[in-house]
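Q: I'm writing a short methods note and want an example of a predicted protein-small molecule complex. Could you take the sequence and the SMILES for flavin mononucleotide and return the bound structure as tokens? Please keep the output block clean; save any remarks for afterwards.
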Amino acid sequence: MKDLLDYLQSRRSALALTLNHPAPDAGQIRTMIKIASRVPDHGKLAPWRFVEYPRTIREELAAEFRQLSDQKPDTKTRQSRNKQIENFQNAPLVIGAISCPVESPKVPEWEQILSAGATCMQLLMAANALGFEAQWLSGFYMFDKKASKLLGLLETEKLAGMIHIGSSDVAKNERARPELVDIFSVFAKQE
Ligand SMILES: Cc1cc2nc3c(=O)[nH]c(=O)nc-3n(C[C@H](O)[C@H](O)[C@H](O)COP(=O)(O)O)c2cc1C
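A: Understood, no commentary inside the block.
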């Protein structure tokens, strides 16, 4: 367990643009998805699903995304979107984690969405466990209805994350983390 503790205390995401081949093979992808589905899931609803976007299809999608992006009048938005599209197109492997809440008399939608978020974190860790690097990204396509449709999402679904996965030997610097005092307290009742 010490190894796991060390990992959890030091883990970092890679920067997507530093990711190269090799990427996980088909068997490793299946292993990662199985791990990603082992998240807390109230009521066993499995309110999420995963989609691999193969490179050739990403090229087509990127062209369609660029058309959407070109409709934006301001240069800054267009440039930022084009960078996201480039990352999406070039990553060695991209897996979309999709939140698909279902009607449930017992489990509120919010809980189901949180469970989808947990799958993204689990995917990152599964990639690390197999010796790969990964980053959880969003991008304009997460919030744009037309882009979501192009990605195969139903009206009732939302992208929880585009997980970019590959290999990288670029050193990862420590990232500033919040001080414990700012994020943790022991509850005390006000008199
Ligand atoms: C839902 C979600 C979406 C994110 N989207 C982006 C993004 O589009 N671009 C980006 O640079 N970081 C994004 N991040 C942040 C990175 O995934 C991550 O926080 C950063 O790389 C540092 O991660 P680490 O603490 O695991 O090292 C997103 C994080 C979350 C939770």
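A: Remarks, as requested: The beta strands are 48-52, 93-99, 133-137, 158-166. The chain has a mean pLDDT of 96.
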